[in-house]
Amino acid sequence: MAEANFSEAGFNASYNKKESIKYGVILGVISFLLGIVVLYVSKHVESFWMLTSMSFGINTVLYMLIALAFAYTLRKQNGGFWNFSIAVKSTFLMLLISTVLATVSTMVFVNVINPALQEEVLRNTINITIEQLENSGAPDDVIDSRVATLEEQMATLGQITVKTIFRSLMISILIQFIFSLILAALTRNEKLIQRPTTLN
């Protein structure tokens, strides 16, 4: 005789560290490449709004969409179901690996491999920022303040310290943890499934 046995699909999902790490590495490489592409294109952009929208669209929106797709892929490997806890652990590990890999790789690239790139981008940013502020009728003191801030950033280029790297990573990791909560909420999928059991 068979008896219905109900259990929560998703609660039985497993935390697959190996897969989360794998997709984290892939996402990190993608994030690094997207960031480098944005930097190279930013050297030649002549519109402040184009620069802002391109950076946000590629580095933020596109990254988030790819991360969401990877989160669904991880869930699919759990049979299409996982609870909120497993979702958070899986997506946060993926995002953590991605953040560390992309951040360190970018710092090495712009400070060691091609240190002139950041300076070129900042010089172009200063020029188009001045143009945008002048066109909007901003007072001279506002323009001077904004330019001074950008010039300070330029003056610190190439000055890598453990403190700088650590602070940058901590801020990024905090943001990614919040993002992992959002991904977990979006991909969470639990439902009752019926499993027949035989009674002797």
UniProtKB/TrEMBL annotation:
<keyword id="KW-0812">Transmembrane</keyword>
<dbReference type="Pfam" id="PF13858">
    <property type="entry name" value="DUF4199"/>
</dbReference>
<keyword id="KW-0472">Membrane</keyword>
<feature type="transmembrane region" description="Helical">
    <location>
        <begin position="48"/>
        <end position="72"/>
    </location>
</feature>
<feature type="transmembrane region" description="Helical">
    <location>
        <begin position="165"/>
        <end position="186"/>
    </location>
</feature>
<protein>
    <submittedName>
        <fullName>Uncharacterized protein DUF4199</fullName>
    </submittedName>
</protein>
<dbReference type="InterPro" id="IPR025250">
    <property type="entry name" value="DUF4199"/>
</dbReference>
<keyword id="KW-1133">Transmembrane helix</keyword>
<feature type="transmembrane region" description="Helical">
    <location>
        <begin position="21"/>
        <end position="42"/>
    </location>
</feature>
<feature type="transmembrane region" description="Helical">
    <location>
        <begin position="92"/>
        <end position="113"/>
    </location>
</feature>
